[in-house]
Design brief:
Hydrolysis of 6-phosphogluconolactone to 6-phosphogluconate. Pathway: Carbohydrate degradation; pentose phosphate pathway; D-ribulose 5-phosphate from D-glucose 6-phosphate (oxidative stage): step 2/3. Keywords: Hydrolase. Belongs to the glucosamine/galactosamine-6-phosphate isomerase family. 6-phosphogluconolactonase subfamily. It catalyses: 6-phospho-D-glucono-1,5-lactone + H2O = 6-phospho-D-gluconate + H(+). It is built from 8 helices and 10 strands. By secondary structure, the protein is of the alpha/beta class. It has a single domain, classed as Rossmann fold (3-Layer(aba) Sandwich), CATH 3.40.50. The chain has a 7-stranded parallel β-sheet, sandwiched between helices. The protein is globular, with a radius of gyration of 16 Å.
Amino acid sequence: MVDCKWHEFASPEALAENLSATVAEKLAAAVKERGRAAIAVSGGRTPALFFDHLSRRDIPWDKVTVTLVDERFVPADSPRSNARLVAQHLLQNKAARAAFVGLYHEAESIAEAAEKAAGVLAEIPAPLDVVVLGMGNDRHTASFFPDATTIETLLKLAEGPDVLPVSSESAGEPRLTLSMNRIAGARFLALHIEGDDKRKTLEEALAMQPGPDAPISAVLAGAKHPARIFWAPASQT
Ligand SMILES: O=C1O[C@H](COP(=O)(O)O)[C@@H](O)[C@H](O)[C@H]1O
């Protein structure tokens, strides 16, 4: 049985308000205790409103590093770039003072890009203070896709590089993902999902054996501190 706590909200707006307050509090506490804070966030469509809210929170952003849970192997000006989403919605307002460390690097191959990203990520102290995950309806989280050629390895909690290359037919393009170790080791791990379809997907995944067919369950089961799930119905607009 995976140990996690559900937080349900009446709307995406109410969820964004609460999740941004919770995350801001964790980041501010980390700065107070250790002088710096680091957060890894997800891409896709879901987090934009949460990012807008978080960007307006009054915390010492100049002491915060923002990075990504995963990235598509596309440059930052691509509409598919998770870094672009973060630049447009999170690194704005008060959060414009935060440092950003992306995962995409120009390289001949995805393996070389991952190696470059891992070198930069290694400079962010472990554990990360906050990780906010998303999830797809195929039960992937970060870029741990069930059909990734290396999914068994990706889901291992073993020591290794902080960023790994991912090849998955369903993913659309090659990917870069933070390691299981970095994600599951976070001091505060949240999963942000919206809509009845994602809720059903998650409930089904949690009833499955954590592993390649249900990467989200594997991550939640491996979490050092029980993950918190933030859910709201899908937006009406
Ligand atoms: O491909 C990705 O998808 C998931 C879920 O995205 P959403 O659009 O359904 O919210 C996301 O968590 C991940 O970071 C992203 O790269």
